[in-house]
Write a structure and sequence with these properties.
The chain is an alpha/beta fold. The protein has helices at about 10-15, 25-40, 45-55, 120-125; strands at about 20, 60, 65, 70-75, 80, 85, 90-95, 100, 105, 110-115, 115, 130, 135, 140-145, 150, 155, 160, 165, 175-180, 185, 195, 205-210. The radius of gyration is 20 Å and the shape is globular.
Amino acid sequence: MTPDNRSMRERMLAGDLYLADDPKLDEWSAVAGELQDAYNATGARQGAERFRLLGRLLGAVGEGTVIRPPFHVDYGRFITVGARTFANFGLVALDVAPIAIGDDVQIGPNVQLLTPTHPVEPEPRRAKWEAAKPIVIGNNVWLGGGVIVLPGVTIGENTVVGAGAVVTRDLPANVVAVGNPARVVRELGYSPPWTRTQPSGSGVISTSYSGDRE
């Protein structure tokens, strides 16, 4: 690699190849590890404590957001999560580069958001050089269970990614994508959401859905 005067931490934050041997990176990782261990040890009735710990672990977290433990990060400080977002059990968010998750996002169990990359060439990989690319998850996105989002990917607002998909490149807003690699199979238009109707004389309220549902 081309030598320069930057620290490895500075190289990492710039998105360039770096070696993970910077003392500051070690300290950030240790702090995050302690906070995520405390978070993952909380009980189901400790919602307020969980939110407090998320506020210390993450770069930012919006009101009403819930992340069910276990939850695993590299540094935590490079993750921002908007309001009213829900992540089910087992979220892995490796934030060597920034991860931005919007408002009202739904994340299924065992989703992986992976920013780190490694050289394809064998020698620099053997020498432990690595890098990272940021991930952006737009507002109101739904990631099904087991989705993997790879480095550098942006997913546009309202998009649905089917369970088990591997997202290798950007997805536009307002689509459904499935598969490995994830491909767009449908565009989403708007129609009125859940509606409630009461049949005449029945005394029973029935619920119907008039919007898109996957």
